[in-house]
Design goal:
The chain folds into 2 domains: 2-111; 114-200, Alpha-Beta Plaits (2-Layer Sandwich). Helices cover 48% and strands 15% of the residues. It has helices at 2-31, 47-74, 90-104, 106-109, 142-152, 181-190; strands spanning 129-137, 158-164, 169-175, 194-200. Strands 2-3-1-4 form a 4-stranded antiparallel sheet. A hairpin with a 4-residue loop joins strand 2 and strand 3.
Length: 205
């Protein structure tokens, strides 16, 4: 039965590997070390393979566990076997499966870990309002989006922020008398992602 616990451990490791690129931005934001957020973005292309490996490994563990229990039931001659340790039980394997499922689903609920900050910028004049699109390299999931959005919203004069990892951009509306493109760029870069270019969005854009 040691094989089952070893396989369960492998399942947890593949689930962690699949979610590491999404978990890191949250941990970095909570710890106040934003620059580490993009540390594991290189794992993102392999995420589907890690997910598949997790499903296969845990599926095999359940197959082994249930198959061995059925075999033991068939060959039982009323002799009392020693009570298996917790690590050999279905309860343990079920707990491992639940943890793995939560890890794999992490990108879907990552936003709850970021502070809900609403901008209440008082615009001194409409002439100062500027809207800029920043093209960002390195974002791989919704966790990355919310990390960038959370940091940019901390700046004075921010009116609106929309971030998309799929488009690889952030569109920021702000009062340029209170902040600047340079300050916003520096803030985004401080998260570990990289602004590669920006463009001013005019009313006709």
């Amino acid at each position: 039965m040691k094989l089952t616990s070893n396989i369960s451990g492998l399942g947890i490791m593949t689930a962690i590997a699949a979610s590491l690129c999404c978990i890191t931005p949250v941990l970095a934001a909570l710890a106040g070390i934003s620059g580490l957020a993009s540390t594991f973005t290189w794992l993102e292309p392999a995420r589907p393979y890690f997910i598949g490996a997790t499903v296969l490994v845990l599926g095999f563990a359940w197959y082994q566990k249930l198959g061995i229990e059925r075999k033991n039931d068939v060959h039982c001659d009323c002799e009392m076997d020693a009570k298996p340790s917790f690590w050999q039980t279905k309860k343990f394997l079920g707990s491992v499966t639940l943890v793995a499922a939560l890890l794999l689903a992490f990108p879907n609920y990552a936003p709850i870990f970021f502070p809900k900050t609403e901008n209440a910028a008082v615009v001194s004049s409409q002439d100062y309002i500027q809207k800029v699109e920043f093209t960002i390299k390195g974002m791989t999931c919704t966790g990355c989006e919310h990390h960038v959005k959370s940091e940019v919203r901390k700046l004075d004069g921010i009116i609106e922020v929309a971030v998309s990892y799929e488009k690889g951009n952030a569109v920021v509306k702000f009062d340029k008398s209170k902040t600047s493109v340079k300050a916003i760029t520096a803030t985004i870069n401080s998260t570990g992602y990289k602004v590669v270019k920006h463009r001013i969005i005019t009313n006709s854009s």
